[in-house]
Design brief:
The protein has 208 residues and is an alpha/beta fold. The protein has a single domain, classed as Rossmann fold (3-Layer(aba) Sandwich), CATH 3.40.50.300. Helices cover 30% and strands 25% of the residues. The protein has a 6-stranded mixed sheet, with helices on both faces. Strand 2 and strand 3 form a beta hairpin. The longest helix is centred in the last third of the chain and has 21 residues.
Length: 208
């Protein structure tokens, strides 16, 4: 039998933000992800609300096991709070951009989320969530526009439902994987360069 190289384990903390228009379901998506519950009583978020949850990201090829602590920022979508977004976005390392499939005009906020992320001057991983898939299906035109936008920066697009749980966990996991992949490439280099993505030390608790 060949020698088995142990997988290195890391603890990482990452700040992620949910961006989107009012009432697209950002708070409900977080509640479904964190507590596996759904509440259809709409209460608008004032400013920002922060929730924490830890997920596990395994990358067997790179011999990495990461306990990823997500600090989830739910940002208000109302226009009067836009001025605060730049402050709240400081230190952001991942974005879930949310649109409402029952209101086609909310897909414009996906482009707005991209512009917000670009203004940070950092390449920030992002996932597009097309929420309320239990109530409506995206039209071919909507999908074409969204996929064209997403293809420019290789952004995953998922139809989600906070009510049924459809693809909610998957969206957070995809974003987590993208963030860990980005972190690993910066820390250990690209595969084939030196040690590749293989870590040389134990725990690494840090916000970035």
């Amino acid at each position: 039998m060949g020698e088995v190289t142990p997988t290195a384990s890391y603890d990482l903390m990452k700040k992620i933000c949910l961006l989107g228009d009012p009432a697209v379901g950002k708070t409900s998506l977080i509640r479904r992800f964190v507590t596996d519950l759904f509440d259809d009583n709409y209460i608008s978020t004032i400013g920002a609300k922060i929730t924490k949850k830890t997920i596990v990201i395994d990358m067997p090829e790179q011999e990495l096991h990461v306990n990823l602590i997500l600090m989830i920022w739910d940002l208000a979508g109302q226009k009067e709070y836009k001025a605060f977004h730049e402050m709240h976005l400081k230190g952001m390392e991942g974005v879930l951009a949310v649109a409402d499939l029952t209101r086609h005009n909310t897909t414009d906020s996906l482009k707005g989320a991209l512009q917000m992320a670009d203004r940070t001057g950092v390449d920030i991983p992002m996932v597009f969530m097309l929420n309320k898939a239990d109530l409506a299906e995206p039209s071919d035109a909507d999908l074409k526009d969204i996929r064209t936008l997403a293809a420019e920066k290789s952004i995953p697009v998922l139809a989600t439902s906070a009510k049924t749980g459809l693809n909610v966990e998957m969206s957070f996991q995809k974003l987590g994987w993208l963030m860990v992949e980005s972190w690993a490439r910066k820390k250990f280099g690209k595969p084939g360069e030196g040690q590749g993505l293989r870590p040389q030390t134990g725990q690494d608790v840090q916000p970035g």
